[in-house]
Amino acid sequence: MPQWLNDIHVLLTSRVPIPRMLFLFSVVTLSLFTLSAHHAATLAQVGLILPVMCALFGQLAVISVRLPSTIDSLERIGMANPGGKLVLILIATYAGLMALPTLSMAQSALSIGVLLYLCLFMVVFYLMGDGSKISWFACDWDDGKRNAANWHVIRLVSVILLNEIVAKHGTPFDWIIAITLGSISLHYLMYWTIYATHPHDKAGWPD
Q1: Where does residue 129 fall: left (phi above 0), alpha (psi -120 to 50 degrees), or beta otherwise?
Q2: Three-state SS letters, the chain
Q3: 52, 157, 29: which is closest to 105 by C-alpha?
Q4: Mean pLDDT in runs of 10 for the chain (207 residues)?
Q5: How would you class 132 by CB atoms within 10 Å of its CB: exposed for 0-12, middle for 13-18, buried for 19 or more?
Q6: How many angstroms separate the CA atoms of 35 and 54, rounded?
Q7: pTM for the complete prediction?
Q8: Rounded to the nearest 5 degrees, what angle is found at the Cα of 119, between the Cα atoms of 114 and 124?
Q9: Dihedral sign, CA of 59, 62, 67, 73?
Q10: Distance, CA of 40 to CA of 56 (rounded, Å)
Q11: Which of 17, 31, 121, 184 has its CA 20 to 30 A from that of 155?
C-alpha cells in the first residue's frame, strides 16, 4: 500500500486531545461578550474595555480550574509553596491589564505574553531538554517529542500572527472570535500536523 495512504490512516485514526481549557475560555469569553455587548459604550466611559474584560474573565475561569495542577507543576520544577506567590502575581497582572487604556494595547500585550511563553518553552525544551517535567509532552513519546515541539512553536507563532492581523484589520468582535475559536482551530491543526508528520512505522500495511 502506498505510504501516503498509511499516513492518512494514521492521521484519521489518531485521537486528538480535547482542549478543555480552551473550550472553557471560549465559552466564558464569547458568552460574556454576547450578553454585554450593548454595554460597551457605558463601560468605555469609566475606562473599561469590554473585549478585554471578557477575555480576562475567561482566563480567570481557566486559572481557577487549573490552579491546583499549576501549583503541583511549579512544585515539581523546584518552586516550593508557590501558591500564595502565584495568586499575588496573577492579581497584579490582571490589575495591570484592567488598567490598559485601549484595546490595541491589550492586543499588543497578548502578543507579548505569547512571545514570552514561546521563549520560555524553547529554552526549557530545546536547551534544557526537559519539557516533560512541566507536562508539555508525554514522557514516553521519545521519538515524537521534537516533532511535536516544532509544531507547537509554529502554533504559537501562528497565534501571534493571527492576533496581530485581527488587531490591525478587524473589529473587537473579530478579535474575540480569533482568540477563542481561532485558538481552538490552531490547537486541532497543530495536533493533526503532529500526527501526520510523526515518524510512525514506515513499514505500513502489507501490500
Answers
A1: left
A2: CCHHHHHHHHHHHCCCCCCHHHHHHHHHHHHHHHHHHHHHHHHHHCCCCHHHHHHHHHHHHHHHHHHHHHHHHHHHCCCCCCHHHHHHHHHHHHHHHHCCCCHHHHHHHHHHHHHHHHHHHHHHHHHCCCHHHHCCCCCCCCCCHHHHHHHHHHHHHHHHHHHHHHHHHCCHHHHHHHHHHHHHHHHHHHHHHHHHHCCCCCCCCCC
A3: 52
A4: 69 79 92 84 66 84 77 62 61 64 83 88 76 51 72 93 93 91 92 77 41
A5: middle
A6: 10
A7: 0.75
A8: 125
A9: negative
A10: 15
A11: 31
The residue assigned the cell 481557577 is 64
Separation CA 129–CA 157 (nearest Å):
21
Return the ∠ at Cα 145 (arms to 20 and 156), rounded to 5°: 55
Taking CA atoms, 196 is separated from 7, 16, 147, in Å, by 6, 12, 11
81: left (phi over 0), alpha (psi -120 to 50) or beta: left
